[in-house]
Hints:
- InterPro entries: YbaK/aa-tRNA-synt-asso_dom_sf, YbaK/aa-tRNA-synth-assoc-dom.
- It is a single chain.
- By secondary structure, the protein is an alpha+beta fold.
- It has a single domain (11-178), classed as YbaK protein (Alpha-Beta Complex), CATH 3.90.960.
- The chain contains six helices and nine strands, in the order E-H-E-H-H-E-E-H-E-H-E-H-E-E-E.
Amino acid sequence: MRAPIGNFDDATPAPDCLDLLVAPVAAAVRAWRGDVPAEQFLYVDTDPEIADTAVFVEHYGPELLEQSANCVVVAGKRGGATTLAGCLVLSRTRVDVNGAVRRQLGARKVSFAAMETATGESGMEYGGITPIGLPADWPLLVDPAVVDTEWVLVGSGRRRGKLILPGKAFAALPGAVVVEGLGI
């Protein structure tokens, strides 16, 4: 199957290659019941050595700069409580941590979660964190530009491989909240 975006040799429906996904991502694909069929979640194999965005788009297609999204894990603190959340924005933007995220989480302070926390709590590899399969009790903040993009490339939970799916599917993920101004 040909990928709808990028220059990839092959695209496979994620339900047909669950063994290539980390456990929480595979479980999320298996359990998916959204309006977008899980068969439209496509897995593409990528070289983990060229995962950096600039090198990645040079190799797999410059249009991916406009059609890729990054998922970062943040930690919001208020009093003694810490709330972990996922934030999904287009790759050409950055997350408004001190504005939109802080307000949405009702936190006094928000920072990017430590790598050990992000990977340990998500069950995913650093550099491959994806919103698909994040813990169900985490808020998932999604920029509207992601939802409005026809096809979006995101991590697969590992540094090797990516997922491509319709942007509208991200608004239907567990805990998803579309937040205006999340990506700046």
